[in-house]
Design goal:
Number of domains: 1
Shape: globular
Distance between the termini: 13 Å
Strand order of the largest sheet: 6-3-2-1-4-5-7
Largest sheet: 7 strands, mixed
Number of helices: 10
Order of helices and strands: EEEHEHHHHEHHEHHHE
Number of strands: 7
Structural class: alpha/beta
């Protein structure tokens, strides 16, 4: 089984893609690329069973509706207070992540993440043209991943790992201790050098969790929202259990 993990950025620079071969008792990192274009992502993940993307796959339904109405000079039902703005800023999955982890994900409506999400929309379009059935709720090949939250739910200290190579080196050592079946091979140095490469691998591990049914999924009443807004899949088990 081949699984892909993608740390997406607004441009190819800082975009990283990982491929892990899970076909044996070991999880072998077989590809880790930086500064990667959309078409190479499509080509490289064609044989992957699951593709975990670290980026919002959609926007809040209420926010999109607000933009549509406002662009037509409709000012009805616009409160403008903070509670209203928070509803516009966050998706249902963001609220679920907040309830589970105590932290808000970045808002795709109001933070710079929106630029990356626009690129992601283009990537999803290219994947669809290549024959991938896109289900933004995570039920299909593509699933939305949050590497930092996944690491914390697995019990790791993520303080400073995005900014410090030393912190990434220590964290990679802890990950390998918790998952002795994981083989980074010659890519370990790149994971330490690049926070984007590191997150691409963590996105892969989280995608593996999703593929095994060991991650959060939208409840039935929120499935219509998740299919439009996207849904962040977070692990519900330990990292060690992903080898099963």
């Amino acid at each position: 089984m081949l699984i892909a993990g993608l740390d997406l950025a607004a441009e190819p620079k800082a975009t990283a893609l990982s491929l892990i071969d899970w076909s044996s008792k070991k999880a072998r990192l077989v590809q880790l690329d930086l500064n990667i274009e959309d078409q190479l992502i499509v080509d490289s993940t064609r044989e992957a069973e699951k593709l975990g993307i670290d980026c919002a796959l959609g926007w809040p339904i209420e926010f999109v509706d607000f933009l549509n109405r406002y662009s037509q000079n409709s000012f009805s039902q616009i409160d403008g207070d903070m509670s209203w703005r928070r509803r516009m800023a966050y998706r249902e999955t963001d609220r679920a992540v907040r309830a589970l982890t105590g932290r808000w994900p970045l808002s795709v409506s109001t933070d710079r993440l929106g630029l990356t999400a626009m690129r992601c929309a283009g990537l999803l379009s290219k994947l669809a043209e290549d024959g991938v059935e896109i289900d933004r709720s995570g039920a299909g090949k593509v699933v939305e991943i949050y590497p930092g939250a996944s690491l914390r739910l697995w019990g790791f200290d993520t303080l400073g790992y995005r900014a410090s190579a030393a912190a990434r080196a220590a964290l990679l050592e802890q990950v390998c201790e918790a998952a002795p079946w994981f083989e980074p091979g010659d890519f370990a140095e790149l994971m330490i050098e690049s926070c984007d490469a590191f997150d691409a691998v963590i996105a892969n591990l989280a995608a593996r969790s999703s593929s095994l049914g060991l991650s959060t999924a939208p409840p039935s009443d929120l499935l219509p929202n998740a299919s439009v807004e996207g849904w962040i899949s977070l692990p519900k088990t330990t990292l060690a259990e992903l080898a099963n």
